[in-house]
Amino acid sequence: MNYVVCLKHGHKYSSDYVNNLYNMVKRNLTVPFEFVCFTEDTTGLLPTIKTLPLPDIKDMTGWWYKPMFFNKDLPLKGTILFMDLDVVVFENIDRLFTYKPEKFCIIRDFNRHVRPDWNKMNSSVFRIQTGQHSHVYDDFIYNPAQAKRLHGDQDWIFLQTKDKEFEFWPDDWIRSYKWEMRGKPDMTFIGGKRNFKTIGEPVIQQDNCIAVFHGDPNPKECRDPWVVDNWK
Questions:
Q1: pTM tops 0.90
Q2: pLDDT one-digit tens code per residue, 67-85
Q3: Sheet with 105-108, side-by-side order of all strands
Q4: What is the dihedral of CA 107, 112, 116, 117, to 10 degrees?
Q5: Beta carbons of 188 and 224 less than 8 angstroms apart
Q6: Is the pLDDT assigned to residue 98 strictly greater than 80?
Q7: What angle do CA 137, 2, 109 make, to 5 degrees?
Q8: Three-class HEC string of 113-181
Q9: Cβ atoms < 10 Å from Cβ of 11
Q10: Are 88 and 211 in contact, with CB atoms under 8 Å apart?
């Protein structure tokens, strides 16, 4: 079974982010799949979205739930494509299921835009098989404080898997909206959040299919017409 999964915890992202991600995936994925949102609050989610509860685990909040997807006892059996909520899917993503089958695949971190040799990971989009690299989850549960000395979940995943078998997605498939597609434009504060100072259009490469909105602005606050047209 193929799954597209996401995580919604707390109040940082509204149900709109889950619903829009579901709609974007439906428009741009033709392989059979089931969309699943792990959350403690299903309010406002479309009835066609399958939901599963987040486990009640001490010290797990926000992005620190991501190691959960490496749990060999996860109630999903098959190929799992995880996506953050702050992404825009705008072209066909079938290749995310067919590329390097059976391999753990993840984004090469976006600092690559200034460091071509950069080999850290960004966990906005990754694909695993159920139970693959299960030590990522097991070691976190055993000692969460050890993981939380790091900046975030993707640093923990990198530390646990950098010497294991994994593949980076091709860089031009999944790109940073503000650093790579908008070219790191001038920023300002609008409504108390960082946003683009001027409205603009992204540079889209031929194989680009997902835009990642790490940090501000989130897709909902971005005023660029391209984002408004695709994030829905």
A1: yes
A2: 889 999 999 999 999 999 9
A3: 50-52, 34-39, 2-8, 79-83, 121-129, 105-108, 167-168
A4: -60
A5: no
A6: yes
A7: 55
A8: HCCCCCCCEEEEEEEEECCCCCHHHHHHHHCHHHHCCCCCHHHHHHHHHCCCCCEECCCCCEEEHHHHH
A9: 7
A10: yes
Average pLDDT, integer, range 120-141 = 92
- Give the pair of three-digit tokens for residue 44: 């406002």
Residues contacting 146, CB < 8 A, separation 6+: 139
The C-alpha angle 152, 159, 136, rounded to 5 degrees, equals 80
Q: Look-up: residue for tokens 């390097």?
A: 100
- Tokens at 61, concatenated: 């909040």
Please report which confidence band the pLDDT of residue 132 belongs to, taking 50, 70 and 90 as the band edges: very high
Amino acid at 154: Q
